[in-house]
Amino acid sequence: MREMENKHTGLYKAFVYLVLILLAIVIVVPIAWVFLASVKSNAEFYGNPWTLPKSFHWENFTSAWTTAGMGKYLGNSVFVTALSLILLIIIALPASYVLARFHFVTQKFWNWFFMLGLFINANYIVVPIFLMLLGGDNFFTKILGHGIFLNNLWMLSLVYASTALPFTIYLLSNYFRTLPASFEEAAYMDGAGYFTTFLKVMAPMARPSIITVILFNFLSFWNEYIMALTLIPGDNKTLPVGLLNLSAAQKSAQNYGQLYAGLVIVMLPTLILYIMVQKQLTEGMTVGGVKG
C-alpha cells in the first residue's frame, strides 16, 4: 500500500515538474527571443527568425532612445508611475488603517464599497472618465482658453491612483487586521495619539504589505495602455503608447531592430524589479490575503 502511495506521489511530482518546466519554456523563450532580436540587423530578420545574431547591433537601442523618442516616453512613464504610487499610498494607507482598526457607523458600508470596486476593471470605465475630463476641459477652455485635464500627466496619475484604491485598501486593511492590538494599547499608554500611533507604530509594522502594493501597482501603472492612450492624446505619451507608435513607424520603415529595442526598454525595468523583489512580493500577497 505504501509503495503504491509513493509511486503515485512520485508520478504527481514528476507531472508538476513537467508542467512547471513547460511553463518556464513558454515564458523564457519569447523573452529571450525579443532580447536577441533587439540586437539584430534588419537583414537578419528576413532569414530564419531563430538564428543567433552574427554581431550585436547596440545602435538599435541608441536609435530607439533618441530618434524614436523612447527616452522621453520613459521619463513620462517614470513620472506618472512614481506620482501615482505616492498619491495611492498617501490616500490608501490611512484609509485602510481606519477601516481595519476603528469601529464607526458607516464602517461596513465603506468596506463593502471598496470590495465592490475590486470587481470593476478600470478599462471598462475609461469612456465615462474621458467624457468627464472632456467636459471639464470644455468648461475651463471657455474661462482660461485651454483645458487642464486631458493630455495632463498629473491627471493621468490621479486617475491611476484612484482606480487602484479598491485593491490597495482591501489588501492593506486585511493586513492591519492581523496585527495585535497590544501595540496600539502600549502606544496609547505612553501618551501617543491616534495619528502618532498610526505613523510611528502601525505603518512600519505594515511594511511587508506596503511593499507588496507598491510593487504590484508599479507593474500595473508601468504597463498600462488603454487609459494612457485615451487620456493623453498629445505628445506626452507613456512608454506603452510610445511603443505602439514606434511599432507602426518601424514596420513601415522595416527597421525591426529598433522596434524590438524599444520593446526591451519597456520590459527591462519590470523584469529587473520583479527578479529583485519576487520573494517579498509573494510573501506580502500571502500575508495580506489571509484574513478578510
Describe this structure in words.
The protein is an all-alpha fold. The chain has helices spanning 2-37, 59-66, 70-101, 107-117, 126-144, 153-178, 182-189, 194-205, 207-223, 226-231, 239-253, 256-288. The longest helix is centred in the N-terminal third of the chain and has 36 residues, at 2-37. The protein is flat. It has one domain (60-288): MetI-like (MetI-like fold). Helices cover 76% and strands 0% of the residues. One of its GO terms (cellular component) is plasma membrane.
Low-confidence region ranges: 288-292
Strand content: under 5%
CATH topology: MetI-like fold
Terminal CA distance = 41 Å
Largest sheet: none
Top keywords for this entry?
MetI-like fold; 76% helix; 292 residues; 12 helices; mainly alpha; single chain
Write the SSE topology.
Elements (H helix, E strand, L loop, with lengths): L1 H36 L21 H8 L3 H32 L5 H11 L8 H19 L8 H26 L3 H8 L4 H12 L1 H17 L2 H6 L7 H15 L2 H33 L4
Helix pairs in contact: 2-12, 3-6, 3-9, 3-11, 4-6, 6-9, 7-8, 9-12, 11-12
Describe what is shown at a glance.
This protein is mostly helical and 292 residues long. Helix content is 76%, strand content 0%.
